[in-house]
Structures are given as structure tokens and as C-alpha cells.
Design goal:
Shape: elongated
Number of strands: 0
Order of helices and strands: HHHHHHHHHHH
Radius of gyration: 29 Å
Distance between the termini: 45 Å
Helix content: over 70%
Largest sheet: none
Strand content: under 5%
């Protein structure tokens, strides 16, 4: 039981004890109805516990079980524990009362999220497998499809989204490093050939050998502007670390632009 739940129960009892000789159950029932109408189920659970402690009935006992299932399921969904949410609400999957209907909706929601989570996790595992065998191109294709899926952007699946995003950034960095290494080797070979024929100027002019203009400093204001750009492009900037943002800004500068595009972090 949460501390807030205990406090609600205690406050309700103390208020009644201080204001009147006999507890006003009708007042508690009114407060309970208000809490349920406002969808404040944890508060409702605390008030119902107060009612039970004063005058337990079959109705309040049954209601206590439903409210507990609802609050527990909400907590489980928030922590992405879908199987626990399903288990907690399974007895109310076909609820007949309005309160049981809330539990039924949570059961349905948890079931859907559980299926989506398994499917999306399979895609992520496939991307990891491709990366482990050195097929980064296939891994990135799978990750791009995964991150573009509407389902993975649901709040309850944010942990999976972050894992996929971090893997994509890691693979992009690896690909970038490989490309840079290949370009450096090519430039070195060209320089060696040019030296033997007195054409050393060609390697010095190679774009791959030049630093990215404007990479010396990136201000906090630029990082914030980049986050605003990411949000404007339909992505959640909270999933991007400051290092991710800096890399995107460097790509943007190299392209001669003042605002980010999706290609800057892909």
C-alpha cells in the first residue's frame, strides 16, 4: 500500500473523529463517489478503506478488491510490467459494474501492450542479431522501421524505444567511423601516388581530410534550439542525450544549415 494511500485513509478518519461523535458514512460515500468520478482511484481506495474500518459491508469489501486491482494495474503499466497488470485485472475482464468496467479496460490495455511489446522486442532482437553478424545495414533498416512504428511511441513502451534508439545511434557511429577510416586510407593512398608524380595538392584538397566547420564550440542555446527542431520534426527530444544532439549539430553545420533535419541523427 502506498504512503499516499495510508495518508488518505488516516486523514479521513481523523477528520471524522474530530468533527463529530459518530462517523458520517454518508459524507465518506459522497467523497468516494467524487474521487471515482474524477478517476482518482488511489484516493478512492483510501476513502473506501476508511469506510470499511468504520462499517464494513459486502459492497465496500467488493469495491475494495476492484479498486486495489485498478490501482495495482495502473502502477504495473507505468513500470511496463504488462503481465502483472493482466494478472491483477483478470477477474474483471468482463466487469459488469462501472468500476469493474475500468478494471476491464485496463486489462484490455495491458493485453494489447503486452502483445505489442513482444512483437517490437522481436524486431529489436533481430536488429541486434544482424549487428552481431556484422550486417549493420540490415540492422539499421530494421531499427528505422521499428522506431517509425506508431506503437513503440506509446508512453508505456518508452524503455523499448530508448533501447532501439541507442542501438541505432551506436550503429550509426560505427558506420561513420568505418567510412571515415576508409576515406582516410583512400586519401593516404592518393597522397602517396601524388607524391611520386609531384601532385600532392590533390590530397590536401580532399573534402574528407578537412575538419567540420564550426565544430569548436556548441552552446547551450544551440543544444536547446536543436531539441526544439527535433520536437518540430515529430520526435521526442527527451530520448536524445546531449552528445546525440552535438553530433546532430555537427552534421547540420557541415551541411551548411541552421536547423536540424531528420538526416542529421540518422
Amino acid at each position: 500500500m502506498k504512503i499516499s494511500h495510508i495518508l488518505i485513509t488516516g486523514i479521513a478518519l481523523l477528520t471524522l473523529a474530530g468533527c463529530q461523535a459518530k462517523p458520517d458514512i454518508s459524507k465518506l460515500n459522497s467523497n468516494l463517489d467524487d474521487a471515482i468520478s474524477a478517476k482518482q482511484y488511489e484516493k478512492a481506495e483510501g476513502i473506501n478503506d476508511s469506510i470499511q474500518s468504520l462499517a464494513s459491508t459486502k459492497t465496500s469489501t467488493k469495491r475494495a478488491k476492484v479498486l486495489h486491482a485498478i490501482v495495482s494495474a495502473q502502477d504495473a503499466l507505468e513500470s511496463s510490467n504488462f503481465s502483472q497488470a493482466i494478472k491483477t485485472t483478470k477477474n474483471y475482464a468482463n466487469g459488469s459494474t462501472s468500476l469493474e468496467g475500468v478494471a476491464a479496460k485496463l486489462h484490455s490495455r495491458a493485453t494489447t501492450l503486452n502483445k505489442q511489446n513482444k512483437s517490437l522486442t522481436t524486431q529489436l532482437d533481430a536488429a541486434k542479431s544482424s549487428a552481431q553478424t556484422g550486417n549493420n545495414t540490415q540492422a539499421l533498416t530494421t531499427l528505422n522501421e521499428l522506431l517509425d512504428a506508431k506503437a513503440i511511441k506509446q508512453p508505456e513502451l518508452r524503455n523499448l524505444y530508448i533501447k532501439a534508439l541507442k542501438l541505432r545511434i551506436s550503429l550509426e557511429d560505427t558506420s561513420h567511423s568505418t567510412d571515415t577510416s576508409t576515406a582516410t586510407t583512400s586519401t593516404t593512398d592518393q597522397a602517396s601516388q601524388a607524391s611520386s608524380t609531384n601532385e600532392t595538392s590533390s590530397s590536401a584538397a580532399s573534402p574528407e581530410s578537412q575538419p567540420i566547420a564550426g565544430s569548436d564550440t556548441i552552446t547551450d542555446a544551440e543544444i536547446q534550439q536543436a531539441r526544439d527542431d527535433i520536437k518540430g520534426l515529430g520526435e521526442d527530444p527527451t530520448y536524445f542525450s546531449n552528445n546525440d544532439i552535438r553530433r546532430a549539430i555537427l552534421k547540420m553545420r557541415a551541411a551548411g544549415r541552421s536547423h536540424l533535419t531528420a538526416s542529421d541523427w540518422q
